[in-house]
Amino acid sequence: MARPRPRGPALGLVLLAGCAGAAPSPSPSRPPEPQLAQLGSRPAPIKPRGRLEDVAAARVFDEQGNASTCVPPQAPQRAACPALPVSSPFLDQCRLAGFQVRQCGCEARCGGNVAALNRHYDADGRLEECAPARDDCTPPQAGAAFQDACTERGYRLDVCGCAWLCSGDFKRLP
């Protein structure tokens, strides 16, 4: 007569008991790991950086594109600061460009340089501000050499006013 096979939790216990006695063999090419009890002391824990330290180390920009580090406001100073405006052209540009608005001291700063977003270069490499595209004209075709030089450097061509401009300095060597 055949014995019935164990089912359910009994099968798991049989399998677990069969594996419990096997100890991993040490690798001949690697020395065994030292035990903490043998060392006599525990290693010092790694202290993770806090959020305030991350904010203090972050690079932020003002309306003119000047970079600085963010100094978070202290509790007494924060109470003396005027409330940050909910909306302003600078803050709106910052948010629309996908950057964070941060309070650094009593000032509003942007996590990215929105002043650089309007800086474009013409086919001769001259710096120009990118005006909004006009509906009343069609920009003339940009030269192939200008298009290639702009896109090969990783920039894009944008219609600014009624002309094609490159979003970066394509003449500067990397």
Structure description:
- It is built from 6 helices and 8 strands; from the N terminus they run H-H-H-E-E-H-H-E-E-E-E-H-E-E.
- It is α+β, with helices and mostly antiparallel strands and 174 residues long.
- Among the domains are: 62 residues, no CATH class; 47 residues, no CATH class.
- The strands form 4 sheets. Strands 1-2 form a two-stranded antiparallel ribbon.
- The longest helix is centred in the N-terminal third of the chain and has 12 residues.
- The protein is extended.
- The protein starts with 8 loop residues before the first helix and ends in an 8-residue tail after the last strand.
- The mean pLDDT is 76.
Write a compact overview of the structure shown:
By secondary structure, the chain is an alpha+beta fold.
Secondary-structure map with pairings?
Elements: H1 9-20, H2 36-39, H3 51-57, E1 59-61, E2 67-69, H4 75-80, H5 89-96, E3 101-104, E4 107-110, E5 119-121, E6 127-129, H6 144-152, E7 157-160, E8 163-166
Antiparallel strand pairs: 1-2, 3-4, 5-6, 7-8
Q: What value does the Rg take, in angstroms?
A: 31 Å
User: Spans of 5+ residues with little confidence (pLDDT < 50)?
Assistant: none
Q: Please give the alpha-carbon distance between the first and last residues.
A: 83 Å
Number of strands: 8
Shape label: extended
What's the story with the biggest beta sheet? 2 strands, antiparallel
Quickly list its features.
single chain, 6 helices, 174 residues, extended, two-stranded antiparallel ribbon, alpha+beta
